[in-house]
Amino acid sequence: MYDGDIASVLITEDQINEKIAELAKQVGGDYPGGGADLVLVGVLKGAVMFMTDLARALPVPVQLEFMAVTSYGSATSSSGVVRILKDLDRDIAGRDVLIVEDIIDSGLTLSWLLKNLASRGPRSLEVCTLLRKPDAVKVDVPVRYVGFEIPNEFVVGYGLDFAERYRDLPYIGTLDPRVYTS
Ligand code: 5GP
Ligand code: MG
Ligand code: MG
């Protein structure tokens, strides 16, 4: 698949699965259940693979909600000015909410999302991201769960795209520069 487009595999399918098991254990311990179900808020489309695998690995019942947002900026970096394309289907007031993200780069999108969701009065609001890049430290966003810290390279696979391609790869890799320039 995608012959020759992937320059290197950064995180293998096995490594992703191991990490999800670890994160699920951690999250499960922090939300013992008993009250209303934890609400996972996935940010479309990048977080879909991670969200569905995490949901199945979690030892507590969860409800799935999705949001789609667009940030004004170039294709590979965001400006922090965000517009909602698809909002949550349900009210999250009084609920435990966990935002599920694919990757935090500048952190601007997430910073906006946290403020937006916090204003709806959830009981608690935390973030779980599969990947985090070094620039994320520049914006002060509290991220409780991080899968992998990765170098400042453009990655694809496991939900992450370049021009809507490569989301279906089961691993995370870097793109051959030929792909950007052809
Ligand atoms: P930021 O944290 O800069 O506001 O933006 C995060 C979003 O930018 C991610 O949800 C993702 O859509 C995109 N993004 C950032 N870094 C990468 C990357 O290395 N690969 C891909 N495919 N998307 C990225
Ligand atoms: Mg995202
Ligand atoms: Mg994208």
From TrEMBL:
<keyword id="KW-0660">Purine salvage</keyword>
<comment type="pathway">
    <text>Purine metabolism; GMP biosynthesis via salvage pathway; GMP from guanine: step 1/1.</text>
</comment>
<dbReference type="GO" id="GO:0006178">
    <property type="term" value="P:guanine salvage"/>
</dbReference>
<dbReference type="InterPro" id="IPR005904">
    <property type="entry name" value="Hxn_phspho_trans"/>
</dbReference>
<feature type="domain" description="Phosphoribosyltransferase">
    <location>
        <begin position="14"/>
        <end position="162"/>
    </location>
</feature>
<dbReference type="Pfam" id="PF00156">
    <property type="entry name" value="Pribosyltran"/>
</dbReference>
<keyword id="KW-0808">Transferase</keyword>
<dbReference type="GO" id="GO:0032263">
    <property type="term" value="P:GMP salvage"/>
</dbReference>
<keyword id="KW-0963">Cytoplasm</keyword>
<keyword id="KW-0460">Magnesium</keyword>
<keyword id="KW-0547">Nucleotide-binding</keyword>
<dbReference type="GO" id="GO:0000287">
    <property type="term" value="F:magnesium ion binding"/>
</dbReference>
<dbReference type="GO" id="GO:0052657">
    <property type="term" value="F:guanine phosphoribosyltransferase activity"/>
</dbReference>
<protein>
    <recommendedName>
        <fullName>Hypoxanthine phosphoribosyltransferase</fullName>
        <ecNumber>2.4.2.8</ecNumber>
    </recommendedName>
</protein>
<dbReference type="GO" id="GO:0006166">
    <property type="term" value="P:purine ribonucleoside salvage"/>
</dbReference>
<dbReference type="GO" id="GO:0004422">
    <property type="term" value="F:hypoxanthine phosphoribosyltransferase activity"/>
</dbReference>
<comment type="similarity">
    <text>Belongs to the purine/pyrimidine phosphoribosyltransferase family.</text>
</comment>
<dbReference type="GO" id="GO:0032264">
    <property type="term" value="P:IMP salvage"/>
</dbReference>
<dbReference type="GO" id="GO:0046100">
    <property type="term" value="P:hypoxanthine metabolic process"/>
</dbReference>
<dbReference type="GO" id="GO:0000166">
    <property type="term" value="F:nucleotide binding"/>
</dbReference>
<dbReference type="InterPro" id="IPR029057">
    <property type="entry name" value="PRTase-like"/>
</dbReference>
<comment type="pathway">
    <text>Purine metabolism; IMP biosynthesis via salvage pathway; IMP from hypoxanthine: step 1/1.</text>
</comment>
<keyword id="KW-0479">Metal-binding</keyword>
<dbReference type="InterPro" id="IPR050408">
    <property type="entry name" value="HGPRT"/>
</dbReference>
<dbReference type="GO" id="GO:0005829">
    <property type="term" value="C:cytosol"/>
</dbReference>
<dbReference type="InterPro" id="IPR000836">
    <property type="entry name" value="PRTase_dom"/>
</dbReference>
<keyword id="KW-0328">Glycosyltransferase</keyword>
